[in-house]
Amino acid sequence: MDRPPNPRSARFVADTMLGRLAKWLRILGYDTHYDPSLDDDALLRIAWAEDRILLTRDHALARRGGPQAFLIDRDDLIDQLQAIRQRFGEPLDAPFSRCPVCNARLLVVPKEAVALCVPAFIWQHHERFHRCPQCGRIYWPGSHFERMQTVLRALGGDRLRAGDGEGPRISI
Ligand SMILES: [Zn+2]
Question: How far is the CA of 79 from the centre of ligand 1 (A)?
């Protein structure tokens, strides 16, 4: 079932209870603001000011947000991701293109540039590296990638798959 992407609403701000969901939304390619220090008023301000959909588990906060909010009423991560995708469409960015820690778009970096930044064993056995311009973390394909592929497969849809089996290593 193909739904047209909804560019207006494909960006999010997640409430303090949704840190894990926020990480996964970023991995899937959704621009997702998450800062656990924000209170309800600050979350609503960001939602309106930056035209982000406020994702929340709090019924009262969802009511306050009105059309700018989306209530997350499921406990299971896959169910949550599916509900968001069904309501708001596919992510605007490719999977594995955002830093799951701080939401910045990852940059591809030449292998030589990270020789001193990653363990020698990793450097020798991988060819593709990404760096977050905001927090400086280096990512490479690794053991966690398989788990992410499993989640992506559970969500279904070719556009959400990473495709070539390569992607940055991200610890969840
Ligand atoms: Zn980062």
Answer: 26
